Amino acid sequence: MLLVFVMRQTPLSCIFKYSSRDKRICMSNQSLENENPVVSALNMREAPILRTTTVSSSSGMAFLELDCHRQNAGFNQTAPDDAYLIALQLKNCRDFDLFAGERFIQPQQFDAGAVAIFDLRNHLSTDLRDPFHAIDLYLPMSALNLITEDLGIPKIDELNHRLGTAVTDTVAQNILLSMRPALAAAREETPALFVDHMASALATHIASTYGGVKLSSRANRGGLAPWQERRAKELLDANLDGNISLGDLARECRISVRHFTRAFRQSTGVSPHQWLLQNRIEKAKSLLNGSSAQLSDIALSCGFADQSHFIRAFVRAVGISPGKWRRFIKK
């Protein structure tokens, strides 16, 4: 099944799926906001898209996975959009044509593991002959502007890249690869806080590496003020499901998202998302040891999507299942 996206004036405004009979179906941006857009609209599995909540929904970043198994998928075109697409190639895709307007661009180095940058402000079109598989970050200029505004420096006009040439970028590669399990998981298992954190990290890397933004190497020595750290932890503890954004936390602390993320790590030694995961596990341990509650009830109390999600997370963190841990502690 081919998954092709079209970026218009509204980000991620339309997604096209081609069935085995090449029937073209268009989903509106409104349908994409539903809990299960593909299941409800097309009776198919959920489209692999994870949006950030740090910036406004009209200009937010998003991770997506595009997977086409077909040879000779053919021509597709993107409408101009004030954004970039950062694309990690998961398989070799060497046989395709790329056009910017009427100008032909010879694609180069589109090998598995390479990262390509597409400026969606151009009239881009492709004629695909090879199958392709990529994990992408949709990166609006507005998100890059938030970084420069926070630093008090001029906006980024454009990223320094060669259109049509993929490059080796291990930082971008690792961040995008780390999103693959989240894109494959049930949406409720992926905290909004995690998506915000990873998108912010990749956007900052792109701004620094390709946008000429110089990030200070000096540590943020003060960290959060005591009241800020206390308030942030209160909010995280009250939202163990992770459905609170970095923007929400930063606003409560009256600082920018980038400043909050750096200062929180300086104060606690971990990112907000890592602190949330640790707190989930510690609360689960307390309930396992101090109550006879069922695992399913503990899972919900600690912000996990369900019992199986709780067991997987507990095993990753502790090394054994919560049931075995409870029996060991009770002895």
Give your account of this protein's structure.
This protein is of the alpha+beta class. It folds into three domains: 144 residues, Jelly Rolls (Sandwich); 54 residues, no CATH class; 53 residues, Arc Repressor Mutant, subunit A, CATH 1.10.10. The chain has 13 helices and twelve strands. The strands form three sheets. Strands 4-5-12-7-10 form a five-stranded antiparallel beta sheet. It has a four-stranded antiparallel beta sheet with strand order 6-11-8-9, with no helix packed on it. β8 and β9 form a beta hairpin. α7 packs antiparallel against α8, α8 packs across α9 and α11 crosses α12. The termini are far apart.
Radius of gyration: 21 Å
The overall strand count is 12
CATH architecture of the largest domain: Sandwich
Low-confidence stretches: 1-47
Q: Describe the sheet with the most strands.
A: 5 strands, antiparallel
Number of structural domains: 3
Query: Would you tell me which CATH topology of the largest domain applies?
Result: Jelly Rolls
Helix content: 40-55%
Q: What's the tally of helices?
A: 13
Distance between the termini: 53 Å
The CATH class assignment of the largest domain is: Mainly Beta
Order of strands across the widest beta sheet? 4-5-12-7-10
**Strand portion, in percent?**
15-25%
